[in-house]
Every structure is written in structure tokens, then in C-alpha cells.
């Protein structure tokens, strides 16, 4: 996998809308958040656009992605927010342009659809990290900022991922494995199954996180991954934040831990949970496509 050239102070980056519309009041703060990192910002038309629940029509959003990667003056591409709609762009993206112009690409949540496709088609490392209109514009904690900057401005391996002082990474299935990191938001990973952009987990370490889904829905999506062979073919599994994944009627629901124990533990794959990444802060920015190692409750990024 090719890691893109890291950004440096003074570089110009593109800011685009790939998914849901951005609140107009958050656009200028999003620009300032990147400028405060020492970057110059070119705003894609999709950041201002709106088409129902999308940040502009598919053709417009895909055009922004293609043009940002094609433009030699732009050194990185940042997704302004998630939501829904990135998967609708996959047939419209010119992956040859991306392959020929590898750049830092950052986002998470709905952007998972783009990460999977770019990783697999372009053989390019991309970054699962905070976005300008959802986190950066509000200010982020030092832990989150440290990992964010290490990824976009650096090219050295992250090494051992240290948990924030307020939490502990835990082991679900003890063991050792190594492989290329893939995955992201569980809903998007599951929805790729059966498409030509289906996630490839063979021999890889699968990272999953989710937000606002009840345990039975998490169960359903993990079961889909299991029955399609995606969990069995993975070398190991990292479970990040499952934010607000709470049952409306807890007394009539399995807990998330029970879901994991019933569906994942029998596979006997090295698995950790409570990993600090996903729809919550503090969060680690992860280089999808990089080599990672799971050893007990430790994760190393190489």
C-alpha cells in the first residue's frame, strides 16, 4: 500500500462534501479550523450545495472529488462531514485520477464507502479521522489532535496506540495477528457486501465502529459480515466506539457485549474492544491500509 506524501505547513488542501449537507453556519468555522493548522483551503462547490439529504447531486459531489485529486496544487482532500450519500458516488469517481495523484484523504463515518474503494482500487492509504464541520470546528482535545497531526503531517508509523487516560482498551479474544487495516463504520462495511466495491477482509485486520444503532441492529450487521465470510477471513478484529448503541427497552435486549460474545468470540480471532476510535472523543486517527498488529489488548500501527 502506498502512503501519500504528508502535508506540510502552507500546503493547499481541498474541502468537499461527499455525503449530507453541511449547516451553512459551520462552513466558515470549518475553513478556519484547517487554516489554524497552517493549511490553505480551496472549498468545493459541494460544501455549499444541497439536494434533499445530500450535499448536492451525485455528479457535483463526484466532480469535486475528481477535480481535487486532479489539481496538482492541492495536496490533500478533506471531507467536511459524513451523513449519507458517499456510496452513491462510487460509479462516478475516476479512480485512475486518484491512483495517479495520491494525496492525503481524511474523513470517517459515511466516508467509509470511499475509504474501502480507494484502499482497494488505488492501493492508497487513507485516514479515518475527525472532520472539519463535526469535530474540528468545535475544537478537539489534545489526544485527538496529536494523533490527527501525526497522520496528516507525518509519515512515521504510529507504533503502539496509547489509550486516553480515561479509558482502557480491552481484550475480547486474546491472541496475536498482523495484517493490513481495513473497515470503518459498520453500517457502510455491511452495505458493501454483494457490490463490486465489497470489502476484502482476507488476511486483514477489520476495524468496526458504529453510532445510534440498537444492539439488535448491530447484531444484524455483524451477522451479515459473519455469514458472508468476512469475519472468518479476517486475521483479527478491532471494535471501536459503539456510540449511543443503546436499546430502547434494555430488559428485552441483549447487551453489545453479549452480541460480540455470541457472534465474534466463537471465531477465535484475536479481537479487542473499547478501542478509542469512532463517533466520540477522544479519538485516534487511523491510517486505513497500513499494517497493524494486535497483541493481547495492544494495537501497533507500522
- Helix-residue proportion: 25-40%
CATH top level of the largest domain is Alpha Beta
Overall, the morphology is globular
Query: How many beta-strand segments?
Result: 14
Order of helices and strands: EHEHEHEHEHEEEHEHHEHEEEE
Rounded to the nearest angstrom, the distance between the terminal CA atoms is 12 Å
Radius of gyration: 18 Å
Q: For the record, what is the CATH homologous superfamily label of the largest domain?
A: LD-carboxypeptidase A C-terminal domain-like
Query: What class do helices, strands and sheet pairing give?
Result: alpha/beta
CATH topology of the largest domain: Glucose Oxidase, domain 1
Describe the overall structure.
With 302 residues, the chain is α/β, with parallel strands linked by helices. It folds into 2 domains: 12-152, Rossmann fold; 159-301, Glucose Oxidase, domain 1. Helix content is 27%, strand content 23%. The protein is built from 9 helices and 14 strands. It has helices at 27-35, 58-70, 95-100, 112-122, 142-152, 186-191, 215-227, 230-233, 256-263; strands spanning 12-16, 40-43, 74-79, 104-107, 126-128, 159-160, 170-173, 176-185, 205-211, 236-243, 271-273, 286-288, 291-295, 298-301. The strands form 2 sheets. It has an 8-stranded mixed beta sheet. Strands 2-1-3-4-5-12 form a 6-stranded mixed beta sheet, with helices on both faces. Helix 6 (186-191) links the parallel strand 8 (176-185) and strand 9. Helix 7 (215-227) packs parallel to helix 9. It is globular. 48% of the residues are buried.
